[in-house]
Specification:
Layout (H helix, E strand, L loop, with lengths): L1 H6 L3 H8 L9 H14 L3 H14 L4 H13 L3 H14 L4 H13 L3 H14 L4 H14 L3 H13 L4 H13 L3 H14 L6
Helix pairs in contact: 2-3, 3-4, 3-5, 4-5, 5-6, 5-7, 6-7, 7-8, 8-9, 9-10, 10-11, 11-12
Length: 200
């Protein structure tokens, strides 16, 4: 019931339901972490951190609490703490694209560009639909004039969704910046085959 309320955006109601549980509940650490998530959504960072820490006291390797606390630390500009927390989460959840994307953001905020791009690339290897990772990897690629990783990711995405015009435009731009003019023309032609009247 608490999760249903949380998914519906009724965070205060969800907190009330979650708080009816106690330590005897099998998923008590997860419940504490979800209370933390609700407080995060309400922008009550003090209580969010409190419940994440309580959850981690019960289960130091808890996924939900670890990710939540790391994201909170990013919001509080504690980037090194966030990196360390995400590293801990990744150690026990190496296939979590959310954790890899999160540490990518933390690295980016901490001006560790190479580590950030590698983390976003890893997130996309796990889940090519991770929009956050694609967005930031594309942004970093343009800022640092390094296009091989984003080109690989965009091509992988387009093998699954070949008619995604936004991603085709992204690939065409990357190819152009990489001085692959013929490839860029071909990609733009692919856009026109999907949208013949596309003026851009």
């Amino acid at each position: 019931l608490g999760k249903t309320l949380e998914d519906e955006g009724k965070f205060k109601d969800a907190i009330q339901v979650y708080q009816e549980s106690n330590e005897s509940h099998d998923n008590f650490p997860e419940i504490l972490a979800r209370i933390g998530n609700c407080y995060m959504q309400l922008q009550d960072l003090f209580n969010a951190e409190k419940y994440y820490q309580l959850s981690l006291d019960f289960n130091k390797n808890g996924y939900t609490a670890g990710v939540g606390l790391a994201l909170l630390q990013i919001q509080c500009e504690k980037f090194k703490d966030a990196i360390n927390m995400f590293l801990r989460v990744i150690k026990f959840n190496p296939d979590s694209d959310k954790a890899w994307s999160g540490i990518g953001i933390a690295y980016m905020k901490n001006e560790q560009v190479v580590e950030s791009m590698n983390a976003f690339s890893k997130a996309l290897e796990i889940n090519i639909n991770n929009e956050t990772a694609i967005k930031f990897l594309l942004e970093l690629s343009y800022l640092n004039n390094q296009y091989s990783q984003i080109e690989c990711a965009l091509k992988s995405y387009l093998t699954i969704y070949p008619d995604d015009v936004n991603m085709l435009f992204g690939l065409a731009g990357v190819q152009y910046k990489s001085n692959c003019i013929d490839e860029s023309k071909k990609t733009l032609t692919d856009i026109l085959s999907v949208e013949p009247d596309n003026e851009d």
